[in-house]
Amino acid sequence: MSQTPLSRYFNFQPLIEQMQRDSQLSVWAQQLPAQLDEHFFLRKHGDLQRWLNALDAMPNFAPSEVHLDRSVVTVAPPQTWTNEQIARMHDALQGLHPWRKGPFDIGGVFVDTEWRSDWKWDRVLPGLTPLAGRKVLDIGCGSGYHCWRMAGEGAEMVVGVEPSLLFLCQFAALQRYIKAPHVNILPLGVQHIPANLKGFDTTFSMGVFYHRSAPFEHLSQLKDTLREGGELVLETLVIEGGLGEVLVPEGRYASMNNVWFLPSCLTLESWLKKLGFNDIQLLNVDKTSLLEQRTTEWMRFFSLANYLDPDDASKTIEGHPAPLRATFVAKA
Ligand SMILES: C[S@@+](CC[C@H](N)C(=O)[O-])C[C@H]1O[C@@H](n2cnc3c(N)ncnc32)[C@H](O)[C@@H]1O
């Protein structure tokens, strides 16, 4: 793997070595050095220097406490930490704006992210086969908030997959203090996971399905990542309606231009069946509230409130049904 300024904050060697020792994941370990060079170390990004400067500006400390099993993923500073150090940390973390998935407390700074991702976790966790001792894959993991929570549940190995370099830098902002070799995010897309891997006990696809233009291909890729009997956790936007109903927004959906398929729950269940998933369970269906996704000091751009019809919050500004999210679990 090439040495670049990113190598200061990202060391994938321990993960590659863990994967090499695993009979199923060793196939991916072989491909990773070339994938990481192409999609990360040698990739150009106009904002990268700003993000690296933000990471460089974060003060060093040994955490007095780390909490991965609480709503606010926390890396507490030493007792002797001063207000000046907190202010330095605040300014450095602001250099990684916008923070979308969280919340976090990093060195005494509360990062109130756009999303209360802990609410999603609270909805999902009770329906899962316990994660303790499992190898877990989180596709489209954003900043890695849920990866930390998976580690907090005792997962043996957590691998996130996320193409956004900013979100990788946000993950690095925590990892430099937590130093958890079994929790990693790969700067890749779902399309870079080798076919037929069959290496994970639990695979999460949360908030990704509706961004994929080929829904069956996505479900099939997810199944391919799982060992036989492994568990898929699929969380996505749905619509109310019967079997066969699906919304394919012609233009934007809640201002997003990359939203493809919003099936009804019955339709999505039938798609999972068609691809050979078993024991399919619908865990919950929830309307996204304006308190769960909102503009904050840490995400100063528009958010959900700006994307709903101001006269009728049951609709998006384009006239589609407002965001409704469902979670399914199913066995491969
Ligand atoms: C709506 S967010 C969901 C984040 C998190 N999983 C959650 O549920 O809160 C979708 C994420 O998928 C990522 N993404 C985009 N293209 C992707 C791809 N090809 N493969 C994997 N993830 C992708 C985005 O960068 C973004 O972080």
Can you characterise this structure?
The protein has 332 residues and is of the alpha/beta class. Helices cover 30% and strands 24% of the residues. It has helices spanning 13-20, 26-41, 48-57, 83-94, 117-124, 145-152, 165-178, 215-225, 265-274, 304-307; strands spanning 65-67, 73-76, 101-102, 104-106, 109-111, 115-116, 135-139, 157-161, 183-186, 200-206, 226-237, 246-247, 262-263, 278-287, 308-309, 312-316, 324-331. A seven-stranded mixed β-sheet has the order 9-8-7-10-11-17-14, sandwiched between helices. Strands 1-2-4-5 form a four-stranded mixed β-sheet. The chain has a two-stranded parallel ribbon with strand order 3-6. α1 packs antiparallel against α2 (26-41). The two termini are 34 Å apart. It binds S-adenosylmethionine. Residues 101, 117, 120, 139-142, 161-164, 167, 189-191, 206-208, 211 line the site of S-adenosylmethionine. S-adenosylmethionine binds at residues 101, 117, 120, 139-142, 161-164, 167, 189-191, 206-208, 211.
Measure the end-to-end span: 34 Å
Based on the structure given, which CATH architecture of the domain at 116-331 is correct? 3-Layer(aba) Sandwich
Roughly how much helix do the residues carry, as a percent range?
25-40%
* SS class: alpha/beta
Number of helices: 10
Average pLDDT confidence is 97
CATH hierarchy class name of the domain at 116-331 = Alpha Beta
Strand content range: 15-25%
Write down the CATH topology of the domain at 116-331. Rossmann fold
Strand order across the largest sheet: 9-8-7-10-11-17-14
**Ligand list:** S-adenosylmethionine
**Can you write the helix and strand succession as a string?**
HHHEEHEEEEHEHEHEEHEEEHEHEEE
Give start-end ranges of low-pLDDT stretches.
none
Shape: globular
Number of strands: 17
